[in-house]
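Researcher: Here's the sequence for the chain we discussed earlier.
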Amino acid sequence: MALAASWSVAIVAQEKITGYVYDASRNAIAGATVVMLSSADSAYINGGVSDAQGRFVMPRPRCKWMMAVSCLGYETAVVRPDGDSVAVTLIEAQHRLGEVTVRSSRPVSQLTPGGFRYKIRGTALAHAGRLEDVLASMPLVRKTGSGYDVMGRGQAVFFVDNRRIYDLSELDRLSSVDIESIEVVANPGSEYDASVKAVVRIATYANFARGLSVDARSTWYQNRNASVVEQLGLRYSAQRWTAYNNLEYRSDNDLTLKDLTQTVYVDTLWNEVSNEQEHRRHNRIENTTGIDWQIGRQSYVGGRYMLTFDTYSRMDLSSDNSVYADGKPYDQLLTTGLQRGHGNRSHFVNAYYSGAIGGFKANADFDYLRSTTETDNEYDEASRAGSSRSFTAVSRVNNRMMSLRASAGHKLWRGDATVGVEYVRTRRNDNYLSTLDEMPTAQSLLRETQRAAFADYSVLTRVGLFGLGVRVENARFTFHPGNGEGDVSQSFTKVYPHLSWGIRVGQLQAQLLYSTEVNRPTYRQLSKIVLYGSRYTWQMGNPMLQPEYVHGLTLQGVWRMVQFQLGYSDTRNAIINWGTQSYAQGALSIMSYRNLPSVKEMRLAVVVSKSFGAWTPQVTTVVNKQFLNLATSMGTYCLGCPIWIVKLSNNFRLGRTLSFFVTADYQSPGDYRNVHLSRHMWSVDFNAVKTFCHDRLSVQLKINDIFDSKKDGNDIYNDRMVMHLLNRYDFRAVSLTLGYKLNSKDDTSHSHSDADKEVKRL
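Model: Thanks. This is the structure I predict for it:
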């Protein structure tokens, strides 16, 4: 949509400059970069990108100005328009240009609907190595064990060129030099599923390469143990179609240490102190094959198939548990365990259409996922107070997911409108068989069907850009315990409105948003199957969990080199981990989940960035504060201590072929839900990239967590139970990567898949 593609200028309540970009045959050029400059000193004023119709809109500046329009494969055009409209014709480049260095000052970010867009091309981050290295220096984004979080919002879902990413390993194949921009959406609109907390959208260069392309990379990774990653991407592009195959082999060797102290206040004061170690070795092969076909000037159709399977999966566990009753030794458990995976496989199929139908911009996606996970478990448990025992357990999980999404957009009155529908159906079978009498055989079946319809409308007025979106979702959930108990069924129909208002005053761009969202419990949180930790600790789900509903209000904007975001949210039915004691055995702790009536939070984020020659520093400061009084049988805990996060990124570009990056990250103690973060957590990372042979060959050296300081401590408050957990991850590591590219750019797809939320819940 034109307004969305040029948001930084569309929110201007003043006279506009409207333009179109064409080639010599008068065909519209999409994705052309339009830069507005001062005629006096060529200073940067504003910028944007042409949409699918070649259209762009910009505010008329008060000074004399000119415009530079460029696109890969075309000569750059410089125009000095006289009126309010302009048509720019680009001529195809007739020869290969040498390197041109352009130095200018631009804003740190560009305001977009719901978030911020950051330019990567032409900056030091374009030479950071891979996408994960770019994200490490991005404001508001932090890497976690399960993915990437947008600070203060939660885990993000990813799009690359409008294609939904299902496996984060796909991101690791994307090179930084092929990234045009990254958009961080902290307030997703109604076009996204209501469960999506944050979105990261990555735009790559237009792909004009023809023939065969090769992208090969080999990584050696060393912490306490050694790991390797081998990747090979092949791609063949003709005039209207592109076929590609990406093959990846990973051999991971990880070690995790956990220290746990658990105190239970019942008739007997129980204390458990445990030291655990998990050594995981995992070999995986992942292969993706796909084809994209251009069937019209702006219309594409295609599909892809992804196969993932484990060639080797083993985890060795050991723990030492000391149990005390009223301060006196009660028992000591020495446990060793072995978990083996059996050729776990995942099949994923996607088919899509993106283009125009009768004047409408249309998109459609179909997704199908089928996966099987089977694990054998062996445990040897030596007890000083009771009988020692050995037992085995087999766990098998089958997942099925089918998703269909379709949308259409068109001009309506003075604005842009989009409507769409979604349908998602999921099925999960859990089977658990144990030789331990306390852990009987269990079978369960989970079924869920989701239907949704959404509509968005944005219009530019004299007082700013207004946006209105609404999403209606119906979810039906059924749990079959398989143990003779009755089925548990839930059905929800909810309306999720989204409102926005954006203005520009001088150099200030600001936006006020109201949003609603839902966070559905994962299938593991819903399943009643009991997971064995030790004879004193069990884990199980709660099929009576209700989804979380979140109401949020956000003010965000950009002023010169400063980016800011102020938000308030109210989460109803907030889901927390919750521990209770067994009535039959007081020493047994049962960990599960429950809902809280409400948790209110405030969030403030400020980003400051400025370039000093070859050095670009960037400081991100985030503070999150919740308002929660947690009532337990032991009394009420006031959990309102704020969490401070500070991130300092230093990017250096030395010449054309050498870049290095130093990133420092700090997190203070504070409260989140029923957890008190009890330790200061910080880390320092280093990354250097050197290229050779006209950037075809690259060498990358990384040192993560240089001072081995990234350890987190948590105090978890439950009913009659307090847990103190210290996680000592094996994050400090050195890695060396060799890469080679031949006539290669990362594959571009136009899919708009929207089923990742279900994959994450499986």
